[in-house]
Amino acid sequence: MECLHYIILFEERRCRCLANNSSCWPNALAWEAFNKTVGGRLLLPEPSAAVCNGKTYDAEACTLAKAQWYNATWRSDQTGAMQNHNWENSSCSVSYNSTTCNQGSVAVFAVDATLPEHVQTTIRFAASNNLRLVIKSTGHDYLGRSTATGSLLLWLHHMKTMTLIEQYSSCGHTTVLNAARIDAGVQWGEVYRWLNEFNLTAIGGAAGSVGVTGGYVQGGGHSPLSRWKGMAADQVLEYDVVTVDGQRQTVSECQNGDLFWALNGGGGGTFAVVLSVVLRTFPSPSIVVATFDVTTPNEARYKSLTEDFIRLVSTVADAGWSGYFTMLDMKLTGVFHVPNGNLTAVNVTLTDFAIKNSDLDFGKTLMFPLQSFYDYFAIILEQSNPTGFNVLLSSRLIRESTVRNSPEKVAEVFAQARGQSSTGSSLLGHIVAGGAVSNISNTNNSINPAWRTALLHMVYSQGWLDTTPEDIQQYLAKQVTHRAEILDQLSTGSQPSCYSNEADPNEVNWQENFYGSQTIYNQLKTIKDKIDPLGLLVCRHCVGSDDWTSDLNCPTTSDLPTTQHPGNSTISNLSVLSTKIEQVLLVSLIIIQMFLSIY
């Protein structure tokens, strides 16, 4: 048995101890001792292109990295990789060779957690040493919330257990049949394949490499099936979490209810570390699929096509359709899918649309039935989600009433905001709201209420090359923000809102736009301050991040508590601790000793 002792001194918050600060960063002996307590699972992450640059160059590994660069599964398996390369923020690239390879925003150490005890020990170690702690499963995060310079990473990717609960009962409610308990490292593609063996499915992401339990479900989680059954967070029955004091807790409607409400929509990496989630599943529906691809000859014709398409969206929404579309240059492309749909009815609807626009070529339009949602995922969705790019997003939720009542205005704004291939941008439309998403009866989550009145989720995507000059990158970032401002023309008389998981990291009014209102944000903040008073879990535009400087390493106020490391290594550390204890005793503060035994 090995035992580490942690002392928490409640005083004012201080700046996080980062790897470049030798005066506070744990020494080699401390890291060695910590590594033993997590079963030897301490890793040294590297930027995903490190093997192609500098002292870390490895010809064979570099060839593999170049071949797999846009493969989301490969990126998920790399400790230091983010799905969007720009959030690694390093000097490394597979596009060119550099004599140096900086660590950038990639964490310095990582714990490859496979057991709850690994998570508990890591949280306690980070808290006692005042370290910057970040959490990652797959690295799917458009705001860079899964990594930070000089930090310790809690990597949950290899927690992969899935269990089907034939009869789940909790909180005195009606028994739920075939609920699924999903561990923190499981990805949606794995869930879909597994549930398909039971002729079941779940309300999950379109990209199979996205993790289930992290930012996706905790941020609300839109889905190809959300119009059919609601948002992913609407399906949550229970969480198994570790809170920032290192304690493991069950969280549900009737156990830790405030935390349950916050976790269901209030954002990942903020309130607790989720070990697993219990979700409703459903008998898998058959799917009717329709793809379309049409190009117009000029701007005027593009706007008129777009207006006809917006009217079509209202029509197909009434019939239970969902889908995705892209607006780029003079092209309008996309896919519709209809759970338990009728192929003949789909054919009639799209044929009418094509006849109305008979001067245009709809030659690539296809319609076909599939037996299950998993077939749709495997044939269509899984093939269309490459990663590894440098990309920023901005997004807006578009009210259903606006789409239905003002199709001309919607078409005009969408045409204005659409992407341009010459700049590496695109406007992506998600027909994933309305339908069951508009059901407001579930009050046990904090999903942005704008989802309940929306029909469309619009995302502007801007990419760039590793070789793009910094000033051009800054210009493109401003264009990302500007495109959201263009979409805001459709929010006249109401507050703009967006999906916090697919949003602009430079969003100004993020508290209101991400979470729905200042009132809701304040409710979430109250829970955050109660459950994490030291602010151990902090990430960009997450609840409570406004208490910290822009790099999230230093508090903006000085009247909040923090933690101090007692010295699990050297005499000098103990001397510093002794002096600190004397100071604390002089002001009558409390010293709490916590013992953690790891077998």
From TrEMBL:
<comment type="similarity">
    <text>Belongs to the oxygen-dependent FAD-linked oxidoreductase family.</text>
</comment>
<dbReference type="Pfam" id="PF01565">
    <property type="entry name" value="FAD_binding_4"/>
</dbReference>
<dbReference type="InterPro" id="IPR012951">
    <property type="entry name" value="BBE"/>
</dbReference>
<dbReference type="InterPro" id="IPR050432">
    <property type="entry name" value="FAD-linked_Oxidoreductases_BP"/>
</dbReference>
<dbReference type="GO" id="GO:0016491">
    <property type="term" value="F:oxidoreductase activity"/>
</dbReference>
<dbReference type="InterPro" id="IPR016166">
    <property type="entry name" value="FAD-bd_PCMH"/>
</dbReference>
<feature type="domain" description="FAD-binding PCMH-type">
    <location>
        <begin position="101"/>
        <end position="284"/>
    </location>
</feature>
<protein>
    <recommendedName>
        <fullName>FAD-binding PCMH-type domain-containing protein</fullName>
    </recommendedName>
</protein>
<dbReference type="InterPro" id="IPR036318">
    <property type="entry name" value="FAD-bd_PCMH-like_sf"/>
</dbReference>
<keyword id="KW-0560">Oxidoreductase</keyword>
<dbReference type="InterPro" id="IPR006094">
    <property type="entry name" value="Oxid_FAD_bind_N"/>
</dbReference>
<dbReference type="Pfam" id="PF08031">
    <property type="entry name" value="BBE"/>
</dbReference>
<dbReference type="InterPro" id="IPR016169">
    <property type="entry name" value="FAD-bd_PCMH_sub2"/>
</dbReference>
<dbReference type="GO" id="GO:0071949">
    <property type="term" value="F:FAD binding"/>
</dbReference>
